[in-house]
Design a protein that fits this description.
Layout (H helix, E strand, L loop, with lengths): L8 E2 L5 E5 L2 E5 L4 E5 L4 E6 L2 E6 L4 H22 L2 E8 L4 E5 L2 E5 L6 E4 L4 E7 L2 E6 L2 H14 L9 E4 L13
Antiparallel strand pairs: 1-6, 2-3, 3-4, 5-6, 7-12, 7-13, 8-9, 9-10, 11-12
């Protein structure tokens, strides 16, 4: 029995949900998202709530029950409120700046790294060492953060690199004489 799947997803005002041909389309003030629904679950719209139920009692069907419900919930939340992640840049001379539709990163390489900002994503540099990535698609926001972090992930000796805000970097002890 899925503990997540049995809760219906409430659809707030200003968000429309359409179920057609094995797809769910959710439209809100921030954008529009769509996803393919697995054959292992049934999705219904009842009284401004989206109800997900498994087709049968197989292990795969019960697993997709909670997954589908969580994905639909994230889509509804994304088009109504949006998602954002904060990142910090740690290191002497490491900085970031927005230049048009590109994020310029100075990360100790011989050249600056240009990161083109994908459509549907907004990046704000509140200071040269702080980034806020926001958008209405949770997967896309997380993917952009992971791609930015991959340029210079935090190293364990001095902690230099790009990290998520609040992330704890496991530090190692340096050389001893």
């Amino acid at each position: 029995m899925s503990r997540i799947g049995k809760h219906p997803v409430a659809v707030p005002d200003g968000v429309t949900v359409a179920l057609e041909n094995g797809e769910v389309k959710i439209k809100g003030k921030l954008g529009e998202l769509k996803a393919v629904i697995s054959d292992l679950v049934n999705v219904e719209l009842k009284d401004n709530h989206v109800v997900v139920s498994p087709v049968n009692e197989t292990k795969e069907s019960r697993a997709m029950w909670g997954t589908t419900r969580a994905n639909i919930n994230d889509m509804v939340k994304g088009v109504s409120q949006g998602f954002s992640k904060k990142m910090e840049i740690v290191g002497v001379g490491y900085k970031a700046a927005m230049q048009g539709n590109n994020l310029k990163l100075s990360l100790g390489f011989s050249h600056e790294v240009d990161f083109p900002v994908p459509e549907g994503i907004k990046i704000v540099c509140s200071s040269p060492t702080a980034l806020e990535i926001s958008g209405f698609d949770k997967q896309k926001v997380g993917q952009v953060c992971a791609e930015i972090r991959k340029y210079r992930s935090p190293e364990p000796y001095k902690g230099k690199g790009i990290k998520y805000a609040g992330e704890a970097i496991l530090r190692k002890e340096g050389k001893k004489k």
